[in-house]
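Researcher: Checking consistency across runs. Here is Class I SAM-dependent methyltransferase again:
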Amino acid sequence: MKNLLSTLEPLLARLPVTASVQLPSGERVGPENSAVQLIFRSPKALAALLDGQVGSVGAAIVEGWVEVKGQARDIMAAAAGLLQTDPVQHRPTWLEQTVSKAKSLTMHTLTRDAEQIQFHYDLSDDFYALWLDPRRVYSCAYFKDRGMSLAQAQEAKLDHICKKLRLQPGERFWDIGSGWGGLIFWAAENYGVQAHGITLSRNQFEHVQRQIAEKGLQGRVQVELRDYRQMDGVEPFDKIGSVGMFEHVGSANLPEYFETIHKMLKPGGLALVHGITAGGVSNAELGAGMGDFINRYIFPGGELMHVSRVLHDLGASGLEMLDTENLRPHYALTLWAWSDALESRLDEAQRILAAQHGPEPAARALRAYRLYLSGCAMGFERGWTALHQMLCCKPDGDMRTGVIKGAQSSYPFNREYIYR
C-alpha cells in the first residue's frame, strides 16, 4: 500500500487542477477539498489510472466501479494530465492495419450499420432535446461571432452549408444522414429546394415526418428510412449534403460512399461532406483507451480517418475537391455548450432515460454521455480530432468548345460568394 501511495502522490501533484483519490480501503491521497475527486470501489481501475489509460478509467466510472466528483472542465483537465503518451501518434503495424480493415468490413454491413445507428440516435429523443438546440442539430455549429448562442451558431452552420452549395429554388437536394431534419428544413424554407433526407434512425425518421406535417411542407421535404447504398431507381440530385455521416461509414466503405455521391450527383452539381476527422495521420482511433470507450458506449462502429485519406477517396471517385475548411475550434465550442446544457439538467435527464430504459441503465448512459461530451470537447481543443467541411463537384466536362472536355463546372473557384 505504501508503494501505491508513493506513486499516486507525485502523479496527482503534477496535474493542472487539484485532485484526490480515495482507495477502496478508504485511504485518501490528495487534498480533501480538491477540484476533482476520484472514489475507487474496485482496485482494478487503479492500474488504468497509473498507466494513463483514461478511457479505461472512464469505463470504470460508467460501470460504477469509480465515482468522480467535480466540474466537467476540471475533470477533463485532470484526464489530460494523466496521459503518458500522445493519443494520436500511434503508428499501426501491418498486422494491425490488416485486422482493422477486416473489422471495418464486418462492422459495416447494411444490418449492422442500422443497428449501430439506432443504438446511439434512438436512445431517447427527449434526452437529446435537453441539451441540443431547438432544431436538434447534432453536429458542429459555426460561431461566426463568438457571442452567438448555440441556437444562433447552428443556424449559421446550416446557412453556411447552403451558401457553399449555392442552393437555388427548385433544385433537388439530397441530405445523407439527415438527423432530426435541421438541414433539409432550413434548405427548403430558406432556399426553396426540394429536399430529400435519408436516415437509419427510426426516432429521427418519425420526428421529421411529424415536422413535415406540422410545417405544411408535404411535397417539398421528404424523408426515408434508407441506407445510402440502396439508392437504385432514384434520379440524381442537383446538390448533395452529408453532415456528421461519414464517421459511421467505415474505412473499408469510404470509397463506395464517395462513389455513391458521384453516381447520385448530376454533372456540374456540388456536394458538401461535413464530418469528424482524425487528428493523427495514421491512428484509426484515439489512444489511451479513449477510442475503445466511445466505441463501446457511444458510437459502435464509428471510425475516424485523417482528412488526407478522406480527400484521397473523394478524388478517386471522380469528384473534384473545391474547398476544404477546418472547423475544429467551432466543434470544441459546440461540445462545451452541449456539455454545459446537460450538466445543468442532470436530474431531468436521469428521469427521462429511466422512464424508457430503467434506473440503472439510465444512470450508466448518463455517466457515459457526461464523459463523452466533455471529453470530446477537450479532444477538439487539443487537436486530437478535427472537423472538416469538404466542398466538391462532379465535373460536367463542358469546355464550351465542343472539342476538348475536361474537369469543368460552373463553380466560381473562389470563396467570395460564400461570405457575401
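Researcher: Does this match what you'd expect to see?
Model: One thing to look at in this run: Residues 86 and 287 are 8 Å apart (CA to CA).
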